[in-house]
Design a protein that fits this description.
The protein is α/β, with parallel strands linked by helices and 314 residues long. It has helices at residues 7-13, 35-43, 102-109, 132-137, 147-151, 158-162, 180-193, 210-222, 240-255, 267-273, 295-302, and strands at residues 17-21, 24-29, 61-71, 77-87, 91-95, 117-122, 125-126, 140-143, 173-174, 177-178, 228-232, 260-264, 276-281, 284-289. The N and C termini lie far apart (46 Å).
């Protein structure tokens, strides 16, 4: 018995496929069935399996990272002189095998690595070592790779989780008092807007499915005016319906002029969403290439090799 939500894996290993939805077996198909057929069985409606986005129209440089270095406790470089720029209205996908510095990179950009040296600025404002509160004030939205550990407080309600980055003042806090009516109204609005499947804003975040938990995190981060969106493994462990929704929201943020840094170990996701792909290996960027770069080339880059003739993009 092999359990997965990845259609590519289903095709490679299965002899027969049984689809579960909401705790029930809704049908069985052969692995030769189309992706669209299996996806619609999983979600209960037709699903767009391709990311629909118009060509990017990048603006001015927004996030500028120069010679970023981060040593670990043994003085080995977790980030090895990393440099790149992300412009307004574009998505830079950071690809690579997990454990090659991607986690430390996004934590550094969110001000969570005090030992980092070099330079990282958003619209000229320093991000290195400033801490989460100052990064939020600088307009950085952060979707962490572990939503349960770092993105949510499971024992808090949906409404309380939606205000975690706005605890310092209006509209949810006035003169030290929580404004329950304003918070409830805001939560109801975001639950509708982001299609969070929950009985009420008072539902505990820990009682939600993984997809709905991720929608709460995304709703919180996208409900502010952002100068930068960082999304680390934004669809890890999610069903195809939730993946479709989250991809749409990330592209919508890009189209509104927000620069996006997205980390993904899924090459299909990186190629579909990105305007440029930066490949990391052992803490360094091997190269920055176009999203049309073949998978086998990206795979070689993820192993530390830069094949001859591969065109890098600025």
């Amino acid at each position: 018995v092999f359990i997965t939500h990845k259609l590519r894996e289903v095709r490679e290993v299965a002899d027969e496929v049984t689809v579960l939805r909401l705790g029930r077996a809704v049908g069985s198909v052969r692995p030769e069935a189309s992706d669209a057929e299996m996806a619609s069985m999983m979600v209960g409606r037709p699903v767009e399996l391709t990311v629909r986005k118009r060509p990017a129209e990048p603006g001015a440089d927004a996030l500028v990272v120069t010679d970023l270095v981060l040593p670990d406790r043994h003085r080995h470089l977790v980030l090895d002189h990393v440099s790149f720029t992300v412009r307004r209205g574009e998505i830079l996908a950071v690809a690579g095998v997990q454990g090659n510095g991607q986690t430390e990179l996004v934590e550094t950009l969110f001000g969570l690595q005090p030992d980092a040296i070099g330079r990282a600025t958003i619209d000229g404002r320093n991000l290195l070592g400033v801490g989460a509160r100052e990064a939020i004030r600088a307009g950085v939205g952060f979707v962490p790779e572990d939503r349960q550990e770092d993105g949510l407080v499971s024992e808090f309600s949906i409404a309380e989780n939606l205000m975690l980055n706005r605890t310092g003042g209006p509209p949810f806090v006035r003169h030290g008092s929580l404004q329950l009516r304003a918070l409830r109204h805001f939560a109801q609005q975001k639950i509708r807007e982001f299609d969070v499947r929950a009985p009420s804003p008072a539902t505990l975040a820990g009682q939600l499915s993984g997809g709905n938990q991720q929608k709460v995190v995304l709703a919180r981060e996208l409900s502010r005016e952002l100068r930068l969106l960082i999304a680390a493994q934004p669809t890890r462990g999610l069903d195809v319906g939730s993946i479709e929704f989250i991809h749409e929201r990330i592209v919508a943020a890009r189209d509104q002029g927000v620069p996006v840094v997205m980390v993904s170990t899924e090459l299909d996701e990186a190629s579909a969403l990105a305007d440029r792909i930066a490949v990391m290996y052992r803490g360094a960027i091997v190269g920055i290439v176009a999203p049309q770069t073949p998978r086998d080339v990206l795979g070689l880059m993820m192993a530390g090799a830069m094949p001859d003739g591969v065109e890098q993009v600025a």
